[in-house]
Structures
1.
Amino acid sequence: MSGTARPWLLTSPGRWVALYFLSVVIIAALKLTGAIESPVGFILLAAATCLLLPLARRRPDGCTSRAMADYNRRIVFSNLGYVLGLGIAVTLWNRYELSDALVFAIALLPTLPTFGVIWAMGRYLAEEQDEYLRHRTIMAALVALGLVLALGIFWGFLEMFELVPHVWAWWVLPVWAIGLGLAQLWQKVRGA
Amino acid sequence: MKNRLKVLRAERDWSQQDLATRLEVSRQSVNAIETGRYDPSLPLAFRIADVFGLTIEEIFLRTE
C-alpha cells in the first residue's frame, strides 16, 4: 500500500499557500498598527500574491488532478486581478472627486476578479473527472456556505440591535473562502 | 458499504496508486473507497469490477 503521502504543508502548493497567508497576516498587522499606509500595503499585498504564482503552473507538484491545477491557476490570476483592482479603486477614490458613474466603474475593478473566483469554482466542479475529489469539494463548499449564512444572519441581527458595527457585504466572499479552507483542512485532518 | 478492494489489491500486489492509475482516479479516491468512507458511483463501481475482472457483487458487499 502506498501510504507515504507527505504532509500537505510540505508539498509545493501547500508551502506557497502557507507563505502567502503568513505574508497577508504580517501586512495586515503592519497596516492595522499604522506602520504602513494604504499604497504601501497594496504594493506589499500585490507582491505577496506573487507567492501564489507557482500554483499557476499547468501541473504543480502535489496537485491531485488536472482540474485542480487549472482551478489553482484561475484563482491565482483572479486574486492578482483583485489586489490590483482594489488598489487602483481605493487610490482613485481617495485622491479624486468622482462622479457616480465613475464610482460605479471603479467598484467593478475589485468586483469582477471576485466573480472570477466564483467562475473558477464552477469550472472546477464541471471539469473535475475524479468523482471523489469533486464530492469532497462540494461538501467543503456547502460547509463554507453554511458558515456564511450562519455568520451573516447572526451578524445581521446583532447589527440591527446595534450591538456590532456595520460590515460591508463583500465580506461574504472572504468568509466563504475561509470556510472552504477550514472545511478542507478538517477533511485532511480526518483523512477524508 | 463494505468492499474487498484491499484484499483484491494485495492478491495482485498492487499499491493504492497502482489501482488509482488503472482506474484513472486519484489515490485519495481509492483510499476513501477502500476504507468505506466513500461509496463509488455505479459507473466507477463497474470500472473497478472491470479492472479486477470480477462482478460488482464480488467486490462490494451489502451491509444490512
2.
Amino acid sequence: MPLSLAASMAIALAVGTPPGIPSDPESSAPSGGPTREESIASSASIDPAPSGSTRGEQKLEGGDPGEPWYALTPGKKLALAVELGAPQGAAFELVFRPWWWLRLNGGFAYNIIGTGIRGGVSVAPFRLPVTPTLNFDLGHYFSGDLTTFTSSSNVYEEALLHDAAYDFWSLQLGLEFGSRDGFLFYTRAGIAHLSASLSGQDVTNYANSQLGGQGTYAAGDANFSALIPCFNVGFLFFVL
Amino acid sequence: MNRATALILPLLFALSGLAGCYAQVEDPNVSLTHDLCPQATPLCIPGGSASLSLVNLVPEITVGLGSSTLLSGTTTSAGPVTLNNTLILNDAVLTLVAPASGADFSGVTSVTLSAIANNDTSCTVATDCTTIATYDQSTDGVAGKTLPLKGSGVNLISITGGGSELALSVRANGTAPAAAMWAGTVTLDMSVKARGSFP
C-alpha cells in the first residue's frame, strides 16, 4: 500500500494544490517570479487563467476559459476497460468520463467460479504523467461454484459450496500511466469487502450430515463477510 | 463538503481499513434438538409429581455437536488466518412430548442447565459444572408443556475443548410432571461464529 502516496494526496488535497505546486504563491514565488496561476499552468501544461481570475485550481481542472466547472470535458468521454485483480476477478467495463477528473464505470465481472456485474467511480484529481486516483467499486457475483477450488466431504458440503453468490465493494488508490485520450494502464491497491449469505437449508443439511448421532440441527441463513487487501491491474482505451 | 474533504475521508477510511482486515462466518440461529429418551424407551423419565430440590429433572444428556471444523477448538487455522470460534447458547427449551395430556412443567419453580465434566451429574465439584442456562418461574412465568431457559453466554467450545459431545445436567426445584413417566426433548438455540483477523 503506497502510504507515502496516500499522505501526499491527503496533504495536497487539504491545501487545495497538487503535489509539487507551491500552496502559497506569495511566499513561495520569488520576487518577479511566476505567479501561482503561472506555476500551475506550467506544471499542468495548460494556459494560465485569464486576467482577473482568482482560481488557479479551476484552470487545473482543465475547462476552457469561461466554462463553468460542470461543463462536460472536451475530447473523448467513453472508454473500454479491462481489469484483472484479486479478489474481484476480471472485469470488462464501459467507462464514461463526464469531467476530466471523474470517471464512471460499469460492466461485467468474471472470477472463474462465476460471473457478475460491477460498477464504480474513479476520481483523478491531478494531471500528471503518473496520475494518482481514488477508486470505489461495488458489484455482485451471481451463483458461483467454489467446489472448483475445494474438495467436499459429502454431497451436503458440496451443495453448500456450490452456491457462492456474493457482493463486494472496494476502495483503492491507484496510479495511471499513459494518455488520457488514448491508452491508459493502471495499477490499484486497497481494501475489499466481501459478503455472502449461505442458505439455511444447505447449512442445516451439512450440519446434520456431521452430527452422526441422536439429535437434529435446524439452522437459519449463515453470513460470511471479509475485509481484505485487494490489488488490480488494468487498462483503459478511450474510443469516443 | 468540498471536493478535498470528499476525497480525504474515503482515503483515510481505506487506510484505516487495512489495519482491520478480517474474515468471518456467522450463523446466529442454529438450533439442536435432542431426544431425552432413547427410541427403545419412549417414556424414560420419572415424574409422579415428585419433589425436586436441586436434583436432576432428567438423566444426564449427552448431546452430539457434530464434527464441524469450526467446533474443533476455540482457535483453528485456515491458511494464514487464525480463527477464533465461538458457540454461544442463546437459550434452551425443554419440551414435554409425552404423554400428550396430564403432565407439564407447571410445578417446576427453577431449573439450572449445566455443562458437566467428569460425569459429575450432581455437580459435587463446583468446577465440574458450568451453568449455561437457567429458568426461574418467578421471572419467566409458569411453564406448560415447554420450559424456556435463558442462556448465560458461555462459549460451549471452551467447555467441550473441541470435542464433539456436550454432557448436560438439568437440575430443578419444585415438583416433577404429574405423569409417572414422561418423555421430551431439549432444544439448544445457539449462535456460531468464526472470525479471523489479519495481518
